[in-house]
Design goal:
Chain lengths: 384, 79
Amino acid sequence: MIPAHGGRLINRIAQGEQREELLAAAKNAPSLTLNAREVSDLEMIAIGAMSPLEGFMGSADLDSVVKNCRLANGVVWPLPVTLSSKGGSFAAGGLIKLEDESGALLGVLQLEETYAYDKDTEAQGALGTTDDKHPGKQYLNGLEGDYLAGPVWLLEMPKHAFANDYRLTPRETRVLFKHKGWKTVVAFQTRNPIHRAHEYLTKCALEIVDGLLIHPLVGETKSDDIPAEVRMKCYTTLLDGYYPKDRVALAVYPQAMRYAGPREAIFHALLRKNYGCTHFIVGRDHAGVGDYYGTYDAQEIFGQFTTEEIGITPLMFEHSFWDKVAGAMASNKTAAATKPEDKVFLSGTKVREMLSNGERPPVEFTRPEVADILIDSMASKASV
Amino acid sequence: MKDPKVTVKIPRPLYERIQQVITDSGFSSATDFIVFVLRDLVGDRALEKTDPEAGVARNNFTNDELAEIRRKLENLGYL
């Protein structure tokens, strides 16, 4: 099976005697409340999804990531994974209890370094912009104090309100793939409902590999994205009706969205390698937001690295749609249609408008069952 | 019954350095810190003996853990 990024699947979940020792050692340690992104990062580090990271980044790694898209040891790593002090002051070398916003103890960090880093430099390197309207820059602007770095141990899994059955760790997906006998597995990252265009991409990919992992991101997203609970209903309904049951698995991916476009595409791919996937779908404007990134920037960035450095194979797809001339799904590479009116594609704004009016988009764009779930969701939201 | 603990000798300068390191760390003694670090290191070594088929450590799962993973995957209809 494909090795984890950096060569070894990390496990920072403290169990048994180690957990008891940590709880005792941290009894009088100071506490730090993590924000939603930090909670999901802690979980993902601990379960090995962010291998080879074993904790929150120090200054050497962060600086190298921002400037070179690599950890200080040279391993490709595109995005910062940092912990903010929230203005608190902590003793070097000591343990810090990591808590969620409800005060629940999740884990501990052994503090190796406290450091400041320029937000504009970080934003320019990681996001490609310092524009304060970018959601990633807004996140940075909202952080207080220095960064805290060091290895972490997870003591309790964060509590989640939904999809708990579908929360599979990299160890668990690897067991699944092994049991299924899937030598090659393609991962599909999404933060949206799956419309016909995405269904087409996943099925094209499945034609050349053994298995498909639908792996929706369910960590923190923008407030105007479709809620993950609603999306999960769409995914399960679509999979029940339109996919081969023995070659597709659905599991959730707890990362918080960065909206970092090309760099986040690399990030999403490397982390899916840790889950045991061998291929990764990269569509148009992957992980993009607004007009900060070019339509295919997230595909072109893979060319900056060698195949061995990335390890997982990206499958690049062009913009796809229903081709009225051919009577089939197609992309610009395969369509018979040449006129825009022969290509069924709706903008996100138009789809939202139709759904909020209780109107199903064309069946060539969205499966009716999926449209109905989204219409119900919008109606419930409007009635609150 | 054998004493469940054994004595291991380490260089005194290293011991004194560890005592400095654990000041305000939450560890109540150098022994606690050393046991913790060694357990972490030994755990890491175990992880390196990976199952090439699954990409995870052979001895990284107890029978109970493996049964729990199988139950979870069965409940999802995947096994």
